[in-house]
Amino acid sequence: MSQATQQLIEQYYAAFNAGDMNTFLGLLTDDVVHDINQGQRETGKHAFTQFMQRMNNHYREQLEDIVVMTNTDGSRAAAEFVVLGEYLNTDEGLPAAHGQRYRLPAGAFFVIRDGKVARITNYYNLEDWIAQVTQSA
Q1: 2-135 to CATH, choices 2.60.40.10, 3.40.50.300, 3.10.450.50, 3.40.30.10
Q2: Whether pLDDT at 136 is above 80
């Protein structure tokens, strides 16, 4: 089961990097729980879709150096990676966007149910990101 979970998370990030939102969102349960870094919890695929639309409007990102870890029964996973990004359009409450580039270490935790992602929690250092885009402005 952990092999299937490993493949699921690898497919999740491959779809993200390819900009294939249909595949990416198709890997989620309908009631997916999304814990936003330093933010609120959202529930449901519709909310996650809206979140991703907003993110794709403000940021262009690719993930590299992805390492996926799973527990033995495949019900949980974690990933560590580096985000290579470009800040495209100013996001509410954040510094002004001018196409600044950033490199940010990040991680995520997953709960897997019925072969799909049922919860994702992302972590990154927001202060580091703000410092990078402020210095690049």
Answers
A1: 3.10.450.50
A2: no
